[in-house]
Amino acid sequence: MTDDTSASPWLIVGLGNPGPEYAGNRHNVGFMVADLLAERIGAKFKAHKAGRAQVVEGRLGAPGPSSRRVVIAKPMSFMNLSGGPTTALRDFYKVPVGRIVAVHDELDIDYGQLRLKVGGGDNGHNGLKSITKSLGPDYCRVRFGIGRPPGRMQVADFVLKDFSAAERKDLAYEVDRAADAVESLIVDGLERAQGTYNS
């Protein structure tokens, strides 16, 4: 049987909110990872005609047969509407759901930890909720731990705050590691990437 998906790119969707006031928020870590992956490709984000998103196209992985064609996207809708732009890009690039990777913040994992998986619930994450409503649950997720809010702080306030000064000391390293995990997922496959990165 031939692999009909071999010509399809991977669609990597970094989740966040557009606008400079959100740039450093915990909820925008998906954008941070997407920015770093675009930097690795050596390309700049451009507005895409198919959906409200900025995209970069290129290849990730070591040069040669193991590199993978990718489309990296940052939806320019707000977080709770991420499903629309993701679906438009999926349709435009003809990407199977199994080749879509959402990179997002995760409350139930401590800061500095990653988890890679396919499918599952949205755990109250509005970006995932919107994508799952549009595509079903069977896409890949790279979950970047941000931990739980301290004391009685509301979750909505916590995710829309910038990383703390202590967290920012390691943030560049953690974002770099998350970008490595995305590359490993698409080049080495889920199981090997989980073995390396699932803390």
Which features would summarize this protein structure in a list?
36% helix, 6 helices, 7-stranded mixed β-sheet, 199 residues, alpha/beta, globular
What does this structure look like?
The chain has 6 helices and 7 strands; from the N terminus they run βαβββαββαβααα. It is of the alpha/beta class and 199 residues long. Strand 3 and strand 4 form a beta hairpin. Helix 1 (29-41) crosses helix 5. The protein has a 7-stranded mixed beta sheet with strand order 2-3-4-1-5-7-6, with helices on both faces. The protein is globular and about 50 Å long. It has helices spanning 29-41, 83-93, 126-135, 155-159, 165-188, 190-197, and strands at residues 10-14, 46-47, 53-60, 68-75, 100-106, 114-118, 140-145.
